[in-house]
Amino acid sequence: MIELDQVQKSYQVGDRAIPALKPTDLTIDTGEVFGIVGHSGAGKSTLVRLINLLERPTGGRVLVDGENVTHYDAAELRAFRRKVGMIFQHFNLLSSRTVADNIAFPMKLAGIYSKAEIRSRVAELLALVSLTDQGNKYPSQLSGGQKQRVGVARALACRPTILLCDEATSALDPQTTQSVLRLLAEINRELGLTIVLITHEMDVVRRICDRVAVMDGGEIVESGPVTDVFLHPEHPTTRDFVFESENIDREELERDFNQASGRILRLTFRGESTYKPLLGHVARASGVDFSILSGRIDHIKDTPYGQLTLSLVGGDLEKAMAEFDAADVHVEVVR
Amino acid sequence: MMESLLGNVDWMEIGWASWDTLVMVGMSLLFSVVIGLPTGVLLFLTGKRQLLEQPVAYAILSFVVNVLRSVPFIILLIVMIPVTVMIIGTSLGVAGAIPPLVAGGAPFFARLVETSLREVDRGIIEATQAMGANVRQIVLGALLPEALPGIIAGITVTAITLVSYAAMSGVVGGGGLGDLAIRFGYQRFQTDVMVITVALLVVFVQLLQMLGDRLVLYFSRK
Ligand SMILES: Nc1ncnc2c1ncn2[C@@H]1O[C@H](COP(=O)(O)OP(=O)(O)O)[C@@H](O)[C@H]1O
Ligand SMILES: [Mg+2]
Fold first, then answer.
1. Number of CB pairs < 8 Å for A and B?
2. Most buried of A119, A267, B31, B193 (most Cβ within 10 A)?
3. Closest by Cα among A88, A51, A84 to A165
4. pLDDT for the residue numbered B3
């Protein structure tokens, strides 16, 4: 478990202190995939770098599994960092070492593994990230997705319990992003690793995160389970991110709404209710007529969800609302 | 034909002078690297926003390096004479030329090392730090290997600079091709000796550059 207790960070630039992270409380549970989403400059990297103390906090405490890591001395800190893997947007592989040597590097630094242990671990990791034949290549000979796989393998070398990902897919194309995210999800599932994942794409959060925090201007403005934050965003920044990820043009949506008559409702189905033949049933029971203005059915991690925006005319609106409620469908009255 | 054109050239003498130049450049290059490499690493590490940021140490080190680099080499040759006599026992000949050459070469090389270390992506340092490396491991395991092509290019440039410095040292009684050029080519107007020594220096520099470029290419994995 990672706990931030009133952690803050400001950078001294000249004689001014620039607050990159305002005092922040945050708890990340063991074994979860925690997303941190925000625009560039929101303070995401600062937050995640405070966890492995690449940055020293200017206030507050960082607790990992109950231990205050901000008080560690140099040797304790190095030992702690071996238990926290990290991957980066630009991979940060050593160009002078082969793929296998890059993966072996953290183990060599640790100085506690035998040559044989290192060799077998490297082979195991190469297999895990599907790069078994590429061990003798140099990073410059690999594609972006392959480089990030090497980054993942390297981060896992010393069997960490936490994996920090700073924009790990931001330099990759959509397909490669998918495959790296799948790899991360698999690692999370099979090794029980806690993953903290920074991104500026809500879609990445939707695919693999359990919980998410939205950052803006050096603070967390909204956080919670991804399904809640994603389906019912509260803060304007969060709404922007969600709309952006769903490719929704808000002005266009407005225009569509203006052309529709009657009440406009947004229905949110989650889990099982997503697949139930509900609309016909409600229409018959309440006598309302409806037309669909927009709709989407997708997954948040493993949870299926659907969101429908309807305009309703005629019939018994109260009754329809009650039916939706009874079926566990969340109803938001848009107009 | 050759006899009359190159009548003054004593090939034995040229041979020995070439060997002396080789020894002077080789030895001074060795010491320049041995002194300049750690100095360059220290300059880098103590610099602004680096791992061992130390403004005072950096300022002092940087000042010494700048002074040595801004003194024209011919002046350095002269002011180094007492120091050289103290270390070597004489300021003359091949051995006597080496201390001033190192005094000129080491700070030059140190700056080149600092520059090539600065060109290593910060992300590499960060990643290595995040793995739990200490400063020594970061320098030896990540920084120097990543900067190796740049450092080899730096050694090449330093070697070539030392060739010309070594030739200059002939003025104050150092040995080698420069000495030959001055004693025969300049003082006795033996143009042929001058031409041959210059030609040999040119060839020497060319060979060094070619070798350096090959090595840089070999060690570049980018
Ligand atoms: N080393 C630094 N010195 C000064 N300001 C910094 C430094 N690192 C980050 N900042 C500032 O802190 C803020 C947050 O940066 P960062 O955490 O990198 O944001 P993000 O990762 O969300 O893009 C930005 O305004 C940035 O300019
Ligand atoms: Mg960032």
1. 65
2. B193
3. A88
4. 56
pLDDT in tens, B122-151: 999 999 999 999 999 999 999 999 999 999
A8 contacts A55 by C-beta, under 8 angstroms: no
Catalogue all structural domains in chain B, each as residue range(s) with its CATH number.
Answer: 2-219 (1.10.3720.10)
Name the closest-CA residue to atom 27, ligand 1: A41
Residue B76, CA distances (Å) to A7, A192, B103, B108 in order: 55, 65, 8, 13
Task: With cut-offs at 50, 70 and 90, classify the pLDDT of residue B4.
Answer: low
The answer to whether residues B180 and B8 touch, using CB atoms and an 8 Å cutoff, is: no
Q: Which residues pair with A87 in a beta bridge?
A: A165
Give B35's strand partners.
none
Q: What is the pLDDT of residues A116-146, one digit of tens each?
A: 999 999 999 999 999 999 999 999 999 999 9
Please state the pTM of the whole predicted model: 0.90
> What pLDDT shows up at residue B1?
46
Closest-approaching ligand to the CA atom of A168: 2
Alpha carbons A169 and B106: distance in angstroms, whole number: 44
3-state DSSP assignment of residue B55: helix
- The ipTM value here is 0.88
- How many other CB atoms sit within 10 Å of the CB of residue B162? 26
* SS3 call for A39: coil
Nearest CA in chain A to B219: A96
Query: Which of B131, B148, B221 is facing A105, going by the closest CB pair?
Result: B131
Residues with CB under 6 A from ligand 1: A 11, 13, 18, 20, 38, 40-46
